[in-house]
Description:
The chain is an alpha+beta fold. It has helices at residues 2-36, 156-188, 195-210, 224-253, 258-280, 305-327, 329-339, 341-346, 351-377, 383-398, 403-419, 429-443; strands at 52-59, 66-67, 72-77, 82-87, 93-97, 109-114, 129-133, 140-146, 217-218, 221-222, 296-298, 301-303. It is found in: Cell membrane.
Amino acid sequence: MSWTRTMRLLALALMTLAFLGVAAPAQAGDVSAEETATECALVKPTDDDTISILGRICDRRERPPIAVPDVTVTVEDSEGNEIGEATSAADGTFVVDLPGAAIEHLGKSYTVILDESTLPEGTKPEITSRTININIDNDQTVIFPVGDAGPSAPGKFTEALQLAVGGLVFSVLLAMAALGLSMIFGTTGLTNFAHGELITFGALAAFFIDRLPGQIEVGGADITVILGVLSAFVLGGVFGWLNDTALWRPLRRRGTGLVAMMIVSIGLSLFLRNVYQYFAGAQQRNYSQYGAVEPWEIGDILLTPKELIVIVLGLAVLVAATSLLQFTRLGKATRAVADNPGLAASTGINVERVINIVWIGGAALAGLAGALLGVTQGFDFQVGFRILLLVFAAVVLGGLGTIWGAILGAFVIGLFTELSTLYIDPEFKFVGALVLLIVILLIRPQGLLGRAQRIG
């Protein structure tokens, strides 16, 4: 009896050991599988003179989303020619460098295509291709979420909404720059071709603040770039004051004609552009923060937090500036000087003081626009020069010298420029905006909000 009991105990012990021997490796295998599932990472921006397409492939059915490695991605131009290929790394990221100089790709569109056959078994992408438009020589980011099956490509409506997001961001920045130019033109009559360099000055001022040794922290949060943007606004105003005090006021006192002053502004533009290139170099620049920010996915539409902040901040600045011009004594004096400087002076208004303040405010708006443009898209020493024609188009379209006209013109130009790529080649989108300007001016020569004037 005791022998039988002993044998039963021995058999039970052997069964227990056998179970543990089988279960332990299985558990270890489970842990290993969990360890190999890498969380989807943000793509690090490149720091070179080329434009790169940065992307990541994430399985968002998991929380947090996990990376999908070893997936082949190709990039094609608008004619269907393959110009680059990459394979997603262990963290789900990939980088495709566009060949050639960055300026060669401006205004062009490229399609990033996901090879479904290289996806892990049992997975399917929500979207297999994304088309991106190169608006400025900065790296572009795309995301391919893997999850439930969806449409192979976004519809026109979805694509239009995505383009409208980018158009709205660009319109706000364009409106700030255009408002500054319109204010200066309204009070002085000067067509300032160096206004683009005021925009670039803001981007560079924020950049050099960002590159100071160490970090500027408040409550443990790094606010270096935020302080840089605010400094660009202040320093831009100081730079505008210096422009007027050292150059434009002496020319006005000597009675220099507006055509001669316009030619001087062209020379100033060339001079400042070369100075910027000497100190900042010719390569593409990005700020230390917000270079690769994870976007919010609203369906197939991507919206980054920095884009939302730029829209809200830009609209707030525009409301504050227009309210200042509309309802304060300074604003009334500015409008009086713009209407008739001689009559304004006879009523006791210090015309030179008003013009100097307008230069400070207009340059500050341009500097803030340049800094925020650098936050959203990066910049180089010619960023202001590239959008100068669009700034002029916005001012002329809205009505020369009008406050609200410059803002309205900027939004029309900015949104039309982006949305027009639904039907025309992105290389011609700026041309389309200028054609729109010509058509409207043929119908309404004074601009959308300008006042018709009788000549002769």
